Amino acid sequence: MHHPTTRATARHADESERSRGIQRTALVAIITNTCLTIGQIVIGLFANAFSLVADSAHTLSDLITDLLVLVAGRRGAEPADRDHPYGHGRIETVTTLLLGAILAGVGTGFLWSSGLRLQHMDVAPSVHPAALYMALATLLAKEVLFRYTLAASRRLKAPLLEANAWHARSDAASSLVVAAGIGGSLAGYPFLEPLAAAVVGFLILHMGVRLAWKAVRELIDTGLSEQDVARIRATIRATPGVIGLHDLRTRRMADRVLCDAHIQVDPRITVSEGHQISDAVYLRVRAAHPEVQDVLVHVDAENDATMQTAPIGRLPERTEIVQTLSSLLEGKLSTPPRVQIHYLGDRIEAEIIITANDITGVDHKALGLRIDELLAAQPQYRTVSVLVHIAP
């Protein structure tokens, strides 16, 4: 049998490895952006390239978001606790939302600044060619960092890293704008910088809105696509022992997919067999759909989603039922009978199990009459059966 402790241990090991991968990627980005920020400021001041100095501020914003990713990657992998019983995966989601908002703001800033520059094209500062080399070096470093981080995000299934990768691409785009502006200024075509800034600004804005919207959908527990849900549903239905499925629900938490389902099983199997079937569903879904990290399976004895039976009031609990059924035997047994109860269709189907020795002291005809009287007087009982257990 599959134990919950084993599930939690394996899941925590996977999350810890993923967290270390996110942190390694973030550290590479932090080192890269620190070096670039220092280089842009020094060369920008030396070459009188104020656009390069401004671009260093953008790189500095990348450095700040890299630190956010580092913290989120570490905190997001922490195991569940009393205050966060489902884990800390939402930290990654919130950070992704924040980075998406930053991207949208950067894109809007590019659009705004490009509009202002187009209105003042006569102002073109004289710059040193060294600024162009620094802008190209920054562009190359940012593009390499973008591809490295994006590959890591896909390998680790981390939307947080994907958002940060596109932030690096936005900074590469700003470096492209700076390089185009400096190159255009050196070549006598100053209008190229604001024109390129407008195009890149729109692309960055679009990417930021897309990532932010993706995070918002996750925060409001948007389910998987119909195709993904259909595949999970097919896996559950194919599990031996499952005769029905309803109320399959899914949601995302960072890289994880969580789902819960109500399965219908034969109403007269034992509790332990029903639990075994639920474990089989869990293992099959995890094996066939690696992105699913947890499956909560509710076992139903019947399809409670489509029950049409009119309710007849409160059904008695086990203690009251056992007392009622024991009275039918009028104290003829040496030991209390074993009773199996089936709550089906808002009715009770009960089975009294007695030994072969006890049945010899019971008046069968009188017992049958008392059972008929009970069924007539108490409509919550559908059937009452007496079964004889023959010991080996």
TrEMBL record:
Name this polypeptide is given: Cation diffusion facilitator family transporter
Alphabetical list of Pfam families matching this protein: Cation_efflux, ZT_dimer
Top-level lineage group: Bacteria
Any coiled-coil regions, as ranges: none
Entries under InterPro entries matching the protein: Cation_efflux, Cation_efflux_CTD, Cation_efflux_CTD_sf, Cation_efflux_TM, Cation_efflux_TMD_sf, CDF_Transporter
Topological category with respect to the lipid bilayer: Multi-pass membrane protein
UniProtKB keywords: Membrane, Transmembrane, Transmembrane helix, Transport
Ranges of residues in domain Cation efflux protein transmembrane: 27-220
Localisation: Membrane
Domain Cation efflux protein cytoplasmic intervals: 224-301
Signal peptide start-end: none
Organism field: Aromatoleum diolicum
Similarity remark: Belongs to the cation diffusion facilitator (CDF) transporter (TC 2.A.4) family.
Transmembrane segments: 26-50, 94-112, 132-150, 195-213
